[in-house]
């Protein structure tokens, strides 16, 4: 009897520790699984964050590396008052002529024979003439007819040279170019061609002219077709020039030959 109880007791005492060990083992396994899962979650999160950062950095590098290419593409310059436009970027050499309206310490305004208002900014490097004689800024007074050459940005000219012209020159020039159509808001563009258009001319072709070349072409165009603003001069492949005109409904392209004589115009 006692022997049986002792055996049972031994079995029980052995069984209990074994069950506890199993439970502890299971608990340890669960804890290990939790720790592994937690570490795996953290690893995945860190990996995802690294990928996101790397992806963001790649996007920044890509945007930065592509920006010079985008910046190198020239923007299309506005043609102003209707008509076609060559693809040119930034201000360019040109000019206008008209009657002085108001005068300030930094410049003056003019109104062309076609009614276009133009702002003229003067600089310390601006030169002045009255007729063919040298002059000073004091020669610019209200009511004087002037020719302005310089860098044109829409209807604002940063003047390099201002010439006070003989009285009545603007009116006589206007009468000799009665074909100029003043700009009117909402009016349809006039479509016509006069004179000779270079056979190989296409809008957007050629090279922007500057300096004396641009000045001579601008003066020729303004003398033949006063009233607008020359906002650029383009030298064509055959050595002739396309003078781009804004501020009027017609013409928008004036063609000048190598001798700086106007040979044609179109819309």
Description:
- With 267 residues, the chain is α+β, with helices and mostly antiparallel strands.
- The protein has two domains: 68 residues; 161 residues, Copper binding periplasmic protein CusF (OB fold (Dihydrolipoamide Acetyltransferase, E2P)).
- It is 34% helix and 30% strand.
- It is built from three helices and 15 strands.
- The strands form two sheets. Strands 1-2-3-7-6 form a five-stranded mixed barrel. It has a two-stranded antiparallel sheet with strand order 8-13.
- A hairpin with a 5-residue loop joins strand 14 and strand 15.
- It starts with a helix and ends with a strand.
Radius of gyration: 40 Å
Q: Let me know the largest β-sheet.
A: 5 strands, mixed, barrel
Number of separate strands: 15
**Tally of separate domains:** 2
CATH architecture of the largest domain: Beta Barrel
What's this, in brief?
The longest helix is centred in the N-terminal third of the chain and has 71 residues, at 2-72. The chain has helices at residues 2-72, 169-175, 211-224; strands spanning 92-103, 107-111, 117-121, 127-130, 133-135, 145-153, 156-164, 181-182, 193-195, 207-208, 229-235, 241-246, 248-250, 253-256, 262-266. It contains 3 helices and 15 strands.
Secondary structure elements and pairings:
Blueprint: H1 2-72, E1 92-103, E2 107-111, E3 117-121, E4 127-130, E5 133-135, E6 145-153, E7 156-164, H2 169-175, E8 181-182, E9 193-195, E10 207-208, H3 211-224, E11 229-235, E12 241-246, E13 248-250, E14 253-256, E15 262-266
Parallel strand pairs: 3-7, 4-7
Antiparallel strand pairs: 1-2, 1-6, 1-11, 2-3, 4-5, 6-7, 8-13, 9-15, 10-11, 11-12, 12-14, 14-15
């Amino acid at each position: 009897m006692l022997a049986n109880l002792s055996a049972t007791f031994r079995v029980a005492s052995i069984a209990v520790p074994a069950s506890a060990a199993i439970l502890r083992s299971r608990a340890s396994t669960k804890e290990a699984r939790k720790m592994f899962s937690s570490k795996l979650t953290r690893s995945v999160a860190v990996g995802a964050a690294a990928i996101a950062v790397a992806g963001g950095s790649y996007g920044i590098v890509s945007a930065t590396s592509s920006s010079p290419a985008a910046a190198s593409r020239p923007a299309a310059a506005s043609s102003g008052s209707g008509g076609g436009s060559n693809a040119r970027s930034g201000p360019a050499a040109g000019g206008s002529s008209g009657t002085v309206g108001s005068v300030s310490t930094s410049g003056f305004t003019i109104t062309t024979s076609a009614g276009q208002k133009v702002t003229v900014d003067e600089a310390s490097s601006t030169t002045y003439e009255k007729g063919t004689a040298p002059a000073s800024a004091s020669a610019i007074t209200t009511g004087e007819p002037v020719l302005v050459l310089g860098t044109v940005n829409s209807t604002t000219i940063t003047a390099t040279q201002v010439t006070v012209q003989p009285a009545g020159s603007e009116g006589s020039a206007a009468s000799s170019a009665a074909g100029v159509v003043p700009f009117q808001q909402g009016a349809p563009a006039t479509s016509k061609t006069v004179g000779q258009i270079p056979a190989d001319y296409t809008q957007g072709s050629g090279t922007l002219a500057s300096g004396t070349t641009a000045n001579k072409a601008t003066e020729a165009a303004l003398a033949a077709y006063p009233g607008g603003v020359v906002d650029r001069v383009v030298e064509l492949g055959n050595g002739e020039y396309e003078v781009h005109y804004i501020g009027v409904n017609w013409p928008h392209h004036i063609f000048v030959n190598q001798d700086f004589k106007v040979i044609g115009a179109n819309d």
